[in-house]
Amino acid sequence: MARTGRDRGDVVRLSKRMAYLLRHAPASAGLTLDAAGWVDVDDLLLALGVSRAELDHVVATNDQRRFAVDGTGTRIRASQGHSVAVDLGYPPEAPPAELFHGTVERFLPAILAEGLRPGRRHAVHLSADVDTARRVGARRGRPVVLRVDAAAMAAAGVPFARSANGVWLVGAVPPEHLAVRD
């Protein structure tokens, strides 16, 4: 692997900066995403002031595979989580019978009353496994894992999609399809 000249903390900071620009505020760095969320790699490198090797290292080592590079290697985008208008083009897909969502206890009363909503993002993010949901919830404190009855939602006609990095996406999850997992 090419040496990037950055320590782990630098890599995490660069990854967070990339996620911010590619998901929420491309214009803050003079970037323009196309309709599907792609931006030219060279433009992102210039905006970040990093080398291609550093960018490739962040993409390759990001534990959540947040970023996708197109087949030509000339464009990059965030795999999901956008608050800016993009159409990622993920086709509808039948979900597994159950999916999971990680949160923290302080949000539980509102979630159980109102369900899961995307907030400023385009979709609610769900995990196919408990461990991933627990890690996501742990970013904000002691995690609580919710079980989503995806089979019942799909049977009711709710469309699901799966992002390039395996995150399941849905518009919302009504409270009747949620349960706290033991």
UniProtKB/TrEMBL annotation:
Keywords: NAD, Transferase. Pfam families: PTS_2-RNA (PF01885). The keyword Transcription regulation does not apply. GO terms for biological process: tRNA splicing, via endonucleolytic cleavage and ligation. It comes from the Bacteria. InterPro entries: Ptrans_KptA/Tpt1, RNA_2'-PTrans_C, RNA_2'-PTrans_KptA, RNA_2'-PTrans_N. SUPFAM superfamilies: ADP-ribosylation (SSF56399). Its EC number is 2.7.1.-. One of its GO terms (molecular function) is NAD+ poly-ADP-ribosyltransferase activity. It is an enzyme of class 2 (transferase). PANTHER family: PUTATIVE PHOSPHOTRANSFERASE, TRNA 2'-PHOSPHOTRANSFERASE 1. Removes the 2'-phosphate from RNA via an intermediate in which the phosphate is ADP-ribosylated by NAD followed by a presumed transesterification to release the RNA and generate ADP-ribose 1''-2''-cyclic phosphate (APPR>P). May function as an ADP-ribosylase. Belongs to the KptA/TPT1 family. This is Probable RNA 2'-phosphotransferase. The gene is kptA.
